[in-house]
Amino acid sequence: MAKVHPNAAAVATELATATTRAAADQQPEPPTTVLTVWRKSLLFNCDGFTVYDANGDLAFRVDCYARRHAEVVLMDAAGAPLLTVRRKRLSLAERWLVYDGDAAASTTRPPLLSVRRHVGGLRVRGASSGKTMAHVVAAASSSAAGGGEAFVVEGSYGRRACAVRDARGDVVAEVRRKEAVGDDVFRLVVSPRFGVPLAMGIVIALDEMFVAGRGSARSWLRIGC
Fold it and tell me: Per the similarity annotation, which family is this (predicted)?
């Protein structure tokens, strides 16, 4: 009978662990999420958004009854609130805060994201290309967006061509123009490293900053955005 080396079991365990790790390292990264965003509510006489997934199923919806919005709620297909996007009052630069769920019942809940309009003509250090539109800061508790991380939004939301970049310059979410359908329908492409609802929260904030306020006293600031 062959004699078994006393360390054989430990070696076999180590080999199995190494194989498992290697297999895990080779697992493909989850695919990006591609949404079709229609800048229109399904409800009559409402502003908002209707968002479809890659299969054509309803993914998110936004229904706003007022033309000027101090608060916008992102809902799932069934109408349950996912995020509340609220304008911060008395801020020097236009700023919108993104809260988890329906934040109307609580004024002390910390935001998941802060989206601030870029002010001034200077480019931001670390920005890769294009015009800086806005700055996004994720709260430390927001793991879906990389807690505590800062992002920059570059490009033109009005032209449906802008990207959210992390500190390394990598694109984590992108608004892309959809040809032959006009500006009210566009694509939202989201990296698996970023939360899809949070990406929609940023889109809502950008829409309020650069589109919804046209015709107001500040509309001259929005020209070319």
Answer: Belongs to the LOR family.
